[in-house]
Structure formats: C-alpha cells, structure tokens
Amino acid sequence: MDATSRGRTETPDQGNADGPWAGNPDLPAPRSGDVPDPGTTDPPGAGASGPAGYDGGLTTGAVARLLGVAPTTLRSWERRYGIGPAEREGGRHRRWTSGDVELLMRMCDFTNSGLPPAEAARAALAVAPGAASAPPGAARRTRPAPSRPSTAPGALPVGRGRTEARGLARAAVRLDARAVEELLARALDRHGLVAAWDEVIMPTLNAVGRRWESSGERYVEVEHLLSWHVSTALRRVAAGPPAARGTAVTLLACAPDENHTLPLEALTAGLMQRGLPVRMFGAALPVDALEEAVRRTGPAGIALWSQGRSTASRPLAQRIASIEWGVRGARTAPTVLLAGPGWAGHQPDGVLRPTSLAEALALLSALASR
Q1: Residue 299 pLDDT
Q2: How far apart are CA 231 and CA 229, in angstroms?
Q3: Could you tell me the CA-to-CA distances from 103 to 46, 89, 117, 143 in Å, in that order?
Q4: Which of 143, 170, 271, 359 has the fewest CB neighbours in a 10 Å radius?
Q5: Phi, psi of 336, deg, nearest 5
C-alpha cells in the first residue's frame, strides 16, 4: 500500500512516495505506463473553460495560459497530431477559435480515460464537428499510436495499474484539480476502495514521488495537489453503517517523526465502510501521546505506519504491544500491526505485518469483531 504524504514536505532520503505495506522502501522504477512531462506532450486540463466571446481568435500564448500548458506544447500537438488552429492571421500567426479550444479539451477527455496522446488526438479529430474540414495534412501529421508505452525522457512511470492511473497522472501534472477530483471519484466508485487504491491511486502517487526524488524540488506542487485530492476523496467514501455497540476500537497512527498519512487514511476509510469504530491520529504522534491514547481507548488492534527506516523503532513496537489494561487477572493487551516498508527487518515477536491494504483491513476487522 503506497502513498505520498498529505502535502507535507518530506526529506529527500524518504521521498514523497510511500513504499508497499511490506518491502523495500527504495522502489524500482516501473518499466511501462509513462506519462509525459509538463511542457512536452502533455495534454491540457479536462473541463477547462475559456472566456466568453473569443471567436475572433486567441493567440497561442492566451490558449496556453487558459489550459495551463506551455506554448511549445501546443505547437508540438499541431506538428505531431494535427491539433492546431484552423486559421492563421495573415498566414502566419496562430489564432485559436472556440472550436479549436473545444477540440483540445476533447483530446484531454480521451487522455484522461487512458488513451495515449496520439490516439487521443485521432479520436478527438474523428468526433469533432466538421471533422472533414480538419486542417490540411492533419491525418498525415498524426503519428500512429506507439505499440508500447512511451519511455521518453521526463516521463512519469505509472507502472502496470489500470488505465485510469495514466489519466490521473496526466491531470495531476497539469494541476487540473477538477479532472483529478473527478477521476478519483470515478475510480473509487467503479472499482471500490481496495482496487482503486492498489491499481489507480498508488501507482500515480508513486510516479509523482519518484519524480520528486529524482528532480530536486520539482513536482512539489503536483504532489501537494494530488495528495490533497486523494485525502479528500478518501474521506468522501469513508461513510458506512453505525458501529455496533460493543465493537472494539481500532487505533491508527504514524510512528513519531513519520509524516506519511495517506495509507492510514485509506485504511481508515475501509474500516469505516465496514462500520468499525476508528481513532485515527495522523502524522508523527509522539510516544507519550500514543501510549496515553492506547490506555484511554483500549483498542483491539493498533496499526503503526512507518515509511522510512529512520522512523521505525522496534523498541517502540514492543513498548506499545506490552501495554495492558483492565482488572487484575483479566488484563488485556492490543494486537499491533506494523504497516509500511520502514518496518522491514524490525518485526518483534507477537506483532503482525500486513502486506496489503486488503490484508490490513481483514486483520483489523477480525480483531475488532472478536
């Protein structure tokens, strides 16, 4: 179960992409499913809308600002795919009409569904009003879709997730907030929490996190936007039936100094969907506060997330697992789950190590219901 943090700046040795529930936090770059870098061949934002009454034509710079892409990107689309202004002022200057801009938006809709840019351009031209009058040479300039995902420099590898992951990554790179929100909601509704997390959200978060690690301070704004929308989407799907009386509480927290919260937010949403009471304490819960929370709530299960080895502590896990409460002769202790790649090699006796969101949900549900 991978994720970035909720918009918090992370140290470069951790990166912004969480590793799997169990495994090496230094994830290898996937070999397929790349998403173009901003300013190269990335399509414009879905749902963007232009100012009323610009049928007189907008300059390339104005359209680029409207859609949030570089002017060179628009020129690249015209050259590669035949997606360009129908007319030029004086035979030289590009003037984009409302119809031209709508064509760009339509292309973006197709890329959001997972189509590569070349296929998206052909599809957009095919369904455009007056498609027969597309710019001369459009069909000739449109390159065939590649037989395998692009490996162009600067691409964001999204791995082997569902096709929605590619559209989500493109929307995030464009900072297209509305498209990101819609794509997340659609994925969660269509596939359910676990599949959407594993096959759409996680690959996208990892792609952005890897790029953040490898490109200095670039992509911070992409990571923050995507993380905020993922967190919001998870909260929206967290509603479930009221918890039954007598059901034990589950406690979720990040280890001290650990700021990655999205995996626990996904786990919180899944438990709440099952009608199980949860106490989610978020990032970097101090040791004393964690111990006090355990004593006050008496949880059946505790999940501690650690993304990096520097935040995982075997003594901490043993200390929390040893806390007891109740009357003498009937003392109770919690079951501790160590979640996240930071715990690799740190597993003390008597604790559990879930390897996926689905497994963590199953274990905590069983503990809460017994």
Answers
A1: 95
A2: 5
A3: 11, 19, 13, 18
A4: 143
A5: -105, 130
Q: Which residue has the tokens 């997606």?
A: 83
Q: What is each CA distance from 131 to 57, 104, 118, 123, 127, in whole angstroms? A: 19, 14, 16, 10, 7
pLDDT tens digit sequence for 46-89: 333 444 445 557 888 888 767 656 677 778 878 888 888 876 65
Answer for the pair 42, 77: CB distance below 8 angstroms, yes or no: no
CA dist 87 and 105 (Å) reads: 18
Cβ–Cβ < 8 Å for 285, 264:
no
Q: 3-class DSSP state for residue 305?
A: strand
Burial class (CB in 10 A: 0-12, 13-18, 19+), 166: buried
Return all residues near 60 (Cβ < 8 A) that are at least 6 apart: 71, 74, 75, 85, 94, 96
Element (H, E) at 89: strand 87-89
Residue 292 CA, chain-centre distance (Å), reads 33
Distance CA 252, CA 283 (A): 10
Compute the average pLDDT of residues 235-251: 88
Residue 365 has a CB neighbour count (10 Å cut-off) of 17
Q: How distant is the alpha carbon of residue 341 from its chain centre?
A: 18
CB 62 within 8 A of CB 93: no
- Reduced to 3 DSSP states, what percent helix, strand and coil does the chain have, rounded to the nearest 5? 45, 10, 45
Question: What does residue 220 show for φ and ψ, rounded to 5 degrees?
Answer: -60, -40
Beta strand 278-280 pairing with 93-95: unpaired
- 268-307 per-residue burial string, b: 16 or more CB within 10 A, e: under 16: bbbbbbbebbbbbeebbbeeeebeebbeebbbbbbbbbbb
> How sure is the predictor about 90, in pLDDT bands with cuts at 50, 70 and 90?
low
Question: What is d(CA 69, CA 39) in angstroms, rounded to the nearest whole number?
Answer: 6
Distance separating alpha carbons of residues 102 and 130, to the nearest angstrom: 13
Tokens representing residue 192 in the block: 């359910």
229 close to 287: Cβ distance less than 8 angstroms: no
Burial of 191 (0-12, 13-18, 19+ CB in 10 A): middle
What is the share, in percent, of the chain residues with pLDDT greater than 90?
Answer: 39
